[in-house]
Amino acid sequence: MAGSDGPLSRSGLRGREAELGELEALITSVARVGSGGLALIQGEPGIGKTTLLAEAVSKAGAAGFSVGVGKADELHHIVPLSSLAACVLQGDRPLLSGDAFADLARNHDQRIWLVERLAEAIEARAGSVPVLIGLDDVQWADPLSRFALQQLPTRLRTSPVLWMLTGRREPAGPAEEIAAAAAGNLTTVTVPLGPLTGAAIAQLADDALGAAVDERVRELLDGAGGNPFLAVEMLAGLRTAEASGDLVPPGLVVGVRGRLRSLKPDTLRFLQMGAVLGRRFGFHDAAALCGRPAATLIAALEEAVRAGLLDDDGDHLVFRHDLLRQAVYADILPSARKALHREAARGFVAAGHRPIDAVPHVLRGALPGDEEAVALLQRAADDVLPVTPDLAADLMTRALALVPSARPSRFTVGEQTVLCLTRAGRSRDALSTGDGLLADRPPPEVFSRLQAALGGTLWNMDLAGELRRRTEAALAMGGAAPEIAARLAALRALALSRDHDLAAAREAGETALRAATATGDREAHVLALSGLGEIAQNAGENAVALERFAALSAIDSAFLPEEIVAHLHVDDFESGRRLLRQATEAGATRQAMLLWAQGQHDLGLGRLDDADADFATMERLEDEVRVPVQQVNGRVIRSRIALLRGDREAAREHLSAARDGLAAKPNPGNTAAVRFLEAVHAEADGDIGLSVDKVRQVQQEGSFMRWRLLRDWVDSAIRMALSGADHELAEDLAAQAEAHAGRNPAVPTATGIAAQALGLVKNDPAMLERSVELLGTSPRPLVRAAASADLGQALLAAGRTQRAVAALTHARDTFAGSGAHAAAARVQHALKGAGTAGRRAATVQRPVQGWGALTASEKKIARLVAQGHTNRSAADLLVVSPHTVNTHLTSVFRKLSVNSRVQLANLVMALPDD
Question: Which of 8, 101, 682, 783 ranks highest by number of CB atoms within 10 Å?
């Protein structure tokens, strides 16, 4: 039978043999090949999606799959992770224990972290047996489950994990989003279900009524339109009608009314209370809503189950189909529904349920001015903010709409709304909401609180000037509480970090830090230290920046990435590596920013392949949470890496992406970074005039922006200026390098680059030799190689060939060792021009496909996975993020043209020992 789990027919699936065969083929493929797959079963309500899914799940279980199946609920579609809960908690061998799942959903405040932990649990199970995860009615999946389902199939595509989802056809709905995210990464099958044929409907009638099927019944069933659930309900109603002598009308709600007519009043009332609570509900919750002791409703429950309207799984009662619940619900008057939902919300809270569990009822029953509902929405928003900030923002927006404009509490609710909208990345909405509240002319203390709440919004929108204006206005007005005044002062200092007068900014930051310390306000303290760190970094005072960011991360470990990068700026890569290990093992909250720090670390050490993978992974994670913080800078660096490797096509693709990112986020830092990258590309294309013009544009972006960018790349900018005969520009750049070295005398990279810059401008081999000497203790091989190459070229021009060859050979070998094959080739060309090829030719570039195309890190990960390691265990061994392992593994599978871990293991086992 299709579309119904009821007692009418047990003769099997009717009219869906072809669709079931398609799903069986996918089940067989996933088990045989060992790679992932996704099936999406789509159709109108009652068309048989649930039954087809159940049949396919049964087939998979018989084939040896570990199975977990859940169902999303219309009423509870906002409770975080509720939809996926049954998928991982139920079955003969649940993927997670109840306690482990509760810890996952409750104690960790990062969506990315949560998805990775789910992936690890599924991956571990898939290492020994194929896994099927099914979710019925995905159109009602909660936001966090939808987020996970958009990531997990692709993340687990190399393991035998089959995802089966059912959903209604909705353009751009959850089902389509999930399928689109998986498409191109794993086998994806869409199974549309249309109306059953007349023959199949006739079979259903035969199953239900046997010889009693006559022409009158067949005409009646034509009204079902080929919908199996409607047909089954009509048949059930027909059996009831035959008992009473009435004719069953051809319509679901009326048909269900016919079936309900014979029920006792208590049973009908009980069913209506259950319909208010949702398709799946607790017996005691329904009894409470009835206002009756549970014991007095046992007879009603038994009658509802006998009538085939409810199933009892031992823990919950479940309407046999969503359409049944909706039909019962539709019979409740709208005003009564609202009242019942309000009562249900109160009952949930009184029974100790989480606020978010009561929210669906609040949203359906709350009326303007309902302070109890507003308070509940506020509590629920606080609870879900860490993992689903979008949901928290929606809840607070609804809460604010419930508060009349004349009530003072509107400002408190509005402040929380602004903070949630900002956290969700909806800065324009946050600013509009905040300005709307400010337009109501709140008292000074409230005005100050709202402006402080808007501080993060304006900073995220790159509106530093507006942030400064607003904080200064709020401070000048007076009346702010001490802790709010401290936050405003810290926000003002943060805004001033983007100004040209960094001395004034530093003074403001110190004042703000003292105020934060005096008030003991943690948020003010964090803001003040963050501002002082930005100011020091913009001023090029690396040691001071490190001091500030270290103090900041001691207060809030979320800022550990900033401390790591600050260590790298003072050439302390050992501390950077130690902190990266610490953050990786602890599960840092800002995963994307941690990868930014990891990428800077690997780039500094000349590990171009690893750095490229780090930045690619960082961008993917930022895309997943829709918070593009470092994407422009990441693409700029990846483009430079591609040019160093000699991959011009990839370099141009990254440049195009960086330009797109700049159009979306046109702040001064992004502008300077993209203009410099355009200069590098123009130089590579032989257009020296354009490259010099672009460097001049970088200079116009402001001293701190250009210097943050050119800290390690100033030699490249000077070479462009000299090639374009712009000595004034070259001298200006060299002077900046010298000033930076003066601020950082203990940093070998800073002092060495300053000497290199001066040597280039003056064409002074002695100064370039000094540069190489100073950089001898720098941990940055690419910087050392560039200085040796400059020295070699200068020595060649001076006729000191033997010393030149030694310097050039060292540069070439260092470039090649880092994978900078294009840079190595340029140095090799200079060696040939000197009449020698050096001790050996430059390293041959890797092929595009095959084992030889893999980087060193990719080979390590491929061997570990071939040995049976999961992404997590491989990451633990290599002390990297599982996300980075996933990025490397994606590249491995592409280069080796394999689709599963089994295929990878077979390939690796056939390789000769290294």
Answer: 783
